[in-house]
Design a protein that fits this description.
22 helices; single chain; globular
Length: 547
C-alpha cells in the first residue's frame, strides 16, 4: 500500500521544480556585475570640499544652462565635463593642473558628491588630461587640415567619456554588464545578409548603445573606440605614437560603421524588445542583494514584475510631465525667441504692419499642440505585465530557443522596385497634400507668408519632440502587433515628423542662446566662482593658523 505522505511530498516537489528557473550563463554573469559595491574611499586620502554658497550658484547656473540642451540624465555630467575641459584647455593648452580644476568644477555643480574627490581621483583625471594633450600634440602636426575639426571633436568625446566613467567605476561596470547582457541575448535574433558576422554584431552593438542605453553619438564613438584600444590614458607613449599614425583612418572607419545603412531598422528592433530588460534591471535596482533568488523563482519573479510594472506606470506619468515641460522650455529658449524676434521685425518691415493675431497663435500654439499629442498617449493594457514576465523568463532561462528564434532580417535591398517607386510617389503626393491643406487653412485666417512659415515650423518641430517624448511612455510596455489606428496615426504624422527631425537637428547647431552662455557668460561666471572659492580657502587657512 502506497504512502499518501510520500505522494503529497512528490507532488509538492514537482510543483516546486516547475517554479524554479534555471538561469543561463549570461544571466549568472549579469548577476555578478550587479552585485558590485562602491569603492571605499581611503580615510588617509584628503578629500576636496566646496562651500554651499558656491555650490548653490554653480548648480543654478548649470540647471539654466542644461535647459538649453536636451540630454538623457545619465549623459548630463559627461556633456558638462566636455564643456569644462574645452574651456579650461582653451585657456591652458598644456593641461597642467587642470585635472583638479575639472573635478573642482564638477564639485561646485554637484555633478559629483561632496567629499568623493581626493588626491587619487585628481591624479587619475590629470593623467587622462595629460595623455590626451600629449596625444593631440603628436597627432595634429601630421593630420590633414580637413580632418582637424573631426579630430578635435573625437578627442574631447573620448576624454570626457573616460573622465566620466572613472568618476564612478561601479556604475560604469554595472551599466556595461547590462548593455552586454542585452547585446548577447538579442544579437542572434538578428540576421543581416551579405556582410560578415563580426560586422553584423558590431552594427547591432551600436544599436544597443543608442537605443537601449540611450547613449549619444559622442558616447557611442568613445565606447567603440575603447572596445578596440582601451582607455587612451592606459596606453604607453609607444602605443600612442603608433595609434597616431592610423588615428584619422580609424575614426573615419568608426564614423562609417556608426552610420551604417541598417541602423534605423536595428534601432527600432532594440527599442521594441527593450521593455522586459528595463523591468528586469529595475528589479535589480530595487533588490540588489536578493535579485538572484527572485529571478530564479517564477512566482517571486511574477509578483515583482507586476509590482514594478505598476510603479513604473506611475513614474512614467511623472516623467512625461517633466519631459514635456523641459521640451517646451528648450524649444522656447532655442527656437521660439529667435523666430518670434524674427517674425515681428520682418512683418513690420515687409508688410508695414504686425499681425498680432498670427503672433499670438504662433506663441500659444506650441504648448497646446504638445499637450494634445501627449494626451493621446494610451496606457499599457492589463496584459502587459504578463507579457513582460513571459519574455523575461525566456531571456534569463538556460533554454536558448528564445535567442535563436530570428525576429529581424535587416536588408536595404529593394525586392520590388516598381512597387516601391509607386509607394514613393503616393507618399510624396500625400506629403505635399498635407502641407497644402495647412497652407490654405492659414490663408483663410489671413496669415502672411512669414507667419505661415513660422506656424508650419512649430507644427513640425513640436510634433517631432512630442513623439520623441511618447517613446518614454512605452519604455516599459511590450507592445503587441500594431493595429489599424497606429498605422493611421503614423500616416497622418509622418510628414510633420520627417520635417521636424530635420529642423530640430539642423537648427540645433545654431543655438544662439547656447553660444551666448558658452562664450559670453560661462567663462567670467566660472572665473568669479573660482575667485570666491580661492578667497574662502585663503580665509580658512588663515583661521586654521590662528586656531
Amino acid at each position: 500500500m502506497s504512502d499518501p505522505t510520500s505522494k503529497l511530498s512528490a507532488s509538492f516537489e514537482e510543483v516546486n521544480s516547475q517554479e524554479i528557473i534555471q538561469l543561463s550563463s549570461f544571466s549568472k554573469a549579469l548577476l555578478n556585475t550587479q552585485n558590485l559595491s562602491p569603492a571605499k574611499k581611503s580615510s588617509l586620502d584628503s578629500r576636496i570640499e566646496v562651500s554651499k554658497s558656491i555650490s548653490f550658484m554653480a548648480v543654478m547656473y548649470e540647471k539654466l544652462r542644461n535647459a538649453l540642451e536636451l540630454h538623457e540624465d545619465h549623459l548630463i555630467r559627461r556633456v558638462a565635463i566636455k564643456r569644462i575641459a574645452k574651456r579650461r584647455l582653451g585657456i591652458n593648452p598644456s593641461g597642467k593642473g587642470e585635472g583638479e580644476n575639472i573635478l573642482r568644477e564638477l564639485l561646485w555643480s554637484r555633478y559629483v558628491t561632496d567629499g568623493s574627490v581626493g588626491s587619487s581621483e585628481i591624479t587619475r583625471v590629470q593623467n587622462i588630461v595629460s595623455t590626451y594633450q600629449y596625444f593631440k600634440s603628436i597627432l595634429t602636426p601630421t593630420a590633414p587640415k580637413s580632418s582637424l575639426s573631426l579630430l578635435e571633436q573625437y578627442l574631447y568625446d573620448l576624454m570626457s567619456t573616460e573622465i566620466d566613467e572613472i568618476i564612478d567605476t561601479t556604475f560604469t561596470h554595472r551599466q556595461s554588464g547590462r548593455l552586454y547582457f542585452v547585446y548577447q541575448t538579442l544579437k542572434e535574433k538578428v540576421v543581416i545578409d551579405n556582410i560578415s558576422k563580426e560586422l553584423a554584431d558590431t552594427y547591432f552593438y551600436i544599436a544597443c548603445e543608442a537605443s537601449f542605453a540611450k547613449n549619444d553619438l559622442a558616447t557611442v564613438r568613445a565606447h567603440l573606440f575603447f572596445l578596440k584600444w582601451g582607455y587612451l590614458s592606459e596606453n604607453s607613449q609607444e602605443q600612442l605614437k603608433s595609434l597616431a599614425n592610423s588615428f584619422v583612418t580609424e575614426i573615419k572607419r568608426l564614423e562609417k560603421t556608426i552610420k551604417n545603412p541598417y541602423q534605423e531598422q536595428l534601432l527600432r528592433f532594440v527599442r521594441a524588445n527593450a521593455p522586459p530588460y528595463r523591468i528586469l534591471f529595475s528589479l535589480f535596482d530595487k533588490h540588489s542583494t536578493n535579485s538572484a533568488n527572485i529571478i530564479s523563482n517564477k512566482q517571486l519573479l511574477t509578483d515583482e514584475v507586476f509590482l514594478t510594472c505598476r510603479s513604473k506606470a506611475i513614474e512614467t506619468a511623472q516623467k512625461l510631465k517633466g519631459a514635456a515641460l523641459r521640451s517646451i522650455v528648450y524649444i522656447f529658449c532655442t527656437k521660439m525667441i529667435f523666430v518670434l524676434l524674427l517674425e515681428f521685425p520682418l512683418t513690420k518691415y515687409i508688410f508695414n504692419e504686425v499681425d498680432f493675431k498670427a503672433l499670438t497663435v504662433n506663441t500659444i500654439f506650441p504648448p497646446i499642440l504638445m499637450g494634445v499629442i501627449l494626451l493621446l498617449i494610451s496606457p499599457a493594457d492589463k496584459n502587459n505585465p504578463t507579457r513582460i514576465r513571459d519574455r523575461i523568463v525566456e531571456i534569463i532561462d538556460e533554454d536558448t530557443s528564445f535567442e535563436t528564434k530570428k525576429s529581424l532580417t535587416a536588408t536595404p535591398v529593394i525586392k520590388r522596385p516598381l512597387l516601391n517607386f509607386i509607394f514613393g510617389i503616393v507618399y510624396t503626393v500625400m506629403f505635399a497634400a498635407f502641407f497644402a491643406f495647412i497652407y490654405l487653412f492659414l490663408e483663410i485666417l489671413h496669415f502672411n507668408i512669414i507667419s505661415k512659415f513660422i506656424f508650419i515650423f512649430f507644427l513640425c518641430v513640436i510634433t517631432f519632440f512630442a513623439f520623441r517624448i511618447r517613446t518614454t511612455a512605452s519604455e516599459f510596455i511590450l507592445k503587441k502587433n500594431e493595429n489599424v489606428l497606429n498605422h493611421i496615426s503614423d500616416v497622418l504624422f509622418l510628414p510633420f515628423l520627417s520635417i521636424g527631425k530635420i529642423l530640430s537637428n539642423e537648427l540645433g547647431r545654431f543655438n544662439v542662446l547656447l553660444l551666448v552662455f558658452d562664450i559670453v557668460i560661462e567663462t567670467p561666471f566660472k572665473i568669479f566662482i573660482e575667485i570666491i572659492d580661492e578667497w574662502q580657502k585663503f580665509i580658512k587657512s588663515r583661521k586654521d593658523e590662528i586656531v
